[in-house]
Here is the input.
Amino acid sequence: MTQSYQHIVVTGATSGIGRQLALDYAEKGFRVTGLGRDQEALSKLSESGIGTAQVDVTNPDEVKAFFEQVDEVDLLILVAGNCIYMDALNYKSDVVQKMLDVNVMGISHCIEHALPLLKVSKGHIVGVGSASAYAPLPRAEGYGASKACIHYLLRTLAISLKPAGIKVTMVAPGFVDTPLTRKNDFPMPFEVSVEAASNYIRRGIERGSTEIEFPLPLILSVKSIGLLPTKLISAIWHRIYDPSKREN
Here is the structure.
């Protein structure tokens, strides 16, 4: 059954999954507002009939100001995120902080200030996590930790906000072909296009799913690895991943 939304707000709408979702929903005739930091990219997005606002989700004042001037929101899709891989032997807490600021606090700021509108509309919150949260992955210590935090936050909110009539969905994508993942210097099995990712997410939202995970082969593989003892996971990763062979 096709759902009707009065106003869809998408963060991280200037590139990747967020941009594709904004475009796809707008093409279906929905009222969409895309948030992002890149004004040039926002201007291009507006050419597709999408409302835009230059908002840095890590800045609570900017987020608050945006939602205070919005009349209604019934679907909030939180895509904005960042990924920085680390060398654990040169651990940098400020790198972890950067990912927590965007991936966790960015989502938190948006939920806090959109919640008054969502209470009225009995709306739907959709947050994008990552399959990396399901198993420890070398170099993804900070990124995976931030995404695991998102997963816990959203799954718990799905329980806590249900009595208020607010739906919450957690999205766990695998590798998606975006400007961010194109920087990766390692194989990305089962990689999907942004168009496919948008289809997965929109179909899951329409079904009212509390969890949207894709692609299935990768999800099952990572979840299976995550169930193993840490000692065995370590042996597997050190067999396929040898930091000493990496180019500097």
